[in-house]
């Protein structure tokens, strides 16, 4: 099989600010794996928070480019070998995993969701993200997002500033609101915020605290009237047991866990613990977003808008209709270059 | 899709005795689901221990015969509906799940293991079961099982009788020995037995105690030098968290959990907890045994000899070569009627 990589620069519609960083563009890496007849495509969206950038992804992919071998269906063995060889490069592993799923499903002649036994009519409502900004800009962004029935609101700076953002949002919309604090609060701030957020009719709160400190997580969950979801605290299925009892659910991201195959493990483990499942993303083109969208019938909530936050998405794939994800019907993940 | 059932009587080579029962034959139920062109086959091996028999399986299948609907690929939704409608009939659900996997994989034109992304060269060594018997008969059975590199020895009666069985076995063979007590010991007996079994070079001990009593399980695990595996204590993925820390692994059976799909969830959840995975069976024809064999590359140990313990297996499918399971290459689960 032929293996190639390409770095793509994704320009952000709005400079994107979350609790810990701000950026105007993002370099992701595409992987193409070809059997001579068909080509599977995957994408790595590296995260500085996890020590990755486009350069580290390219080095990791160079290291493992021969591993997929001759058979895209040997997924379990291939991904096990990748975990051994590039354990810290989850975005690079996700790119290979997505490309292999795309290629294998193309060879079977079925869309990925069908290979996975899932119902494309069961995709959840996906949210549109509102980054941290001044109230005036927030109000403008919320008006721009009028077609989306659910908003994901980034908080996690100072509590008073966060509440100002919430008031600005609620002055514009009755949409469903999901909060993501991106580990930005202290324990005391988080306890206070989950209490005060209840007056804004909030659907859930994601990662109120940094990873670690189980007692602080327990305090926050006890103080909260809405579900608490772990994101940065749960990367793979192995991280679920330690968070059981401390949160109500997990946010599954292909880039954190290393691809579709481990995402299934993570979802299954979370469900075994009775947890809510959200499927999320980084800033990604329609390649990685669409791969995740094929898994979304397994999730209660989707937050797959990474491709909507960029102005130059090179691909088309999953789309959004009345808030719900619409999956491509073509074999594989079903993405195509935008003309 | 057309749905039909057939009860089959499986005659046992030796009347089969485990800690709690003895039987000379077994009635299982076949399910066939046809799309007009291809037919998937599944099997229910009901267990009295879980309140099932052929009659209860037939009643449950009658209740849900329309549920698979028009599309064998809608596995997630179909199996969710079955869990709601016949929650207690896991063997009946397994039969439908196996038949749908067989039909869908046939339509994709690939063997089930390939659909699941697994390597047929990674199947584990499967064990041959020696039921409870008098020392003389045990020695004869062990000699008959000379081709199998691993034996699964049923214990769980009186400790002194169990040790007599172990001495009889070790007088005949150096094979790998896995113990299954089928919940037959008290806590004190189990603690004593795991200590005394260490002199017989035992690979693992399965279900030393009845389900429940976490403190007793903890005592047994602390006293044991070999891994302790849960069977009757873990039916589905939902049962794993409560046993985490009390055992080293789980025995996954299609008939307990309700099929291939839930077996994957259970395996993933066990792995997330760092557990050993064994894949086991009931008294089953080659239909259900072969379905489980396709999953066996995900397991550390296999105990898939249910079809070898009967004299009139109506099907051929997975076979055993030098102790390892050999998977059929035909599309689907790949079983065929014996001529």
Walkthrough of the structure:
The structure is a homodimer of 339-residue chains. With 339 residues, chain A is of the alpha/beta class. The first copy, chain A, has twelve helices and 15 strands. Chain A has helices at 54-64, 75-85, 90-108, 112-115, 135-144, 159-170, 187-197, 214-223, 240-243, 254-257, 260-272, 286-295; strands at residues 2-18, 21-34, 39-44, 128-130, 150-154, 176-180, 202-206, 228-230, 249-253, 276-280, 301-302, 315-316, 319-321, 324-326, 336-337. The longest helix of chain A has 19 residues, at 90-108. The mean pLDDT of chain A is 95. Chains A and B meet through α2 and α11 of A and α2 and α11 of B.
Q: Largest inter-chain interface?
A: A-B, 34 and 34 residues
**Percentage of residues in strands of chain A:** 15-25%
Q: Give the rounded overall mean pLDDT of chain A.
A: 95
What is the number of helical segments of chain A per DSSP (H or I, 4+ residues)? Answer: 12
| Structure summary, number of beta strands of chain A | 15
Oligomeric state of this protein: homodimer
Q: How would the global form of chain A be characterised?
A: globular
What's the N-to-C terminus distance of chain A?
Answer: 27 Å
Order of helices and strands of chain A: EEEHHHHEHEHEHEHEHEHHEHEEEEE
What fraction, in percent, of the residue positions of chain A are helical? 25-40%
Radius of gyration of chain A: 19 Å
Unreliable stretches of chain A, pLDDT < 50, 5 or more residues? none
